[in-house]
Design a protein that fits this description.
This protein is mainly α. It has seven helices and no strands.
Length: 147
């Protein structure tokens, strides 16, 4: 799938119905981002970056749909940024920065996801860990996204 998307991006020919291809790429990327094997995860990140380019993310894909489809990736990417594996952390951080360079994406969505570590959800009050008791690398790695 990555080779097909890359081929479409290099040709830069508009697709009449890019919405279906966009949704298919999102699903493939979601599955890959949840994988524990880093090589699969890295390919999924490449698919994520490519799906925001011109022919795949065509004029029939609305900004609200792009924001809605990218939202689930934020938690996955920020968790990888908090991991101890330096390569996974660096590539995930670069992907977040690259994805949010897209003009249709709302930066407030990223801010909300980063700050979830500091907010207490009323439904899960017993599971909330105060910031003073959390590992500093988790807090710092999430805040590094803004640098």
């Amino acid at each position: 799938m990555l080779a097909y998307i890359t081929h479409l991006v290099t040709r830069n020919n508009p697709l009449p119905q890019s919405r279906k291809l966009f949704q298919a790429c999102v699903e493939v990327s979601k599955l890959g981002c949840q994988d524990k094997i880093l090589q699969v995860y890295f390919v999924a990140l490449k698919v994520l970056v490519q799906l925001l380019n011109a022919p795949v993310c065509g004029s029939d894909v609305s900004e609200s749909q792009i924001n809605k489809e990218i939202q689930p990736f934020l938690g996955l990417l920020l968790n990888k940024i908090s991991e101890l594996n330096n390569r996974a952390r660096d590539i995930s951080q670069a992907t977040v920065v690259g994805v949010f360079n897209h003009p249709a994406l709302s930066m407030s969505m990223l801010v909300e996801e980063v700050m979830k570590v500091a907010k207490c959800n009323e439904q899960y009050k017993q599971l909330f860990v105060p910031i003073s008791k959390q590992q500093p690398r988790i807090i710092l790695s999430r805040l590094e996204v803004f640098l």
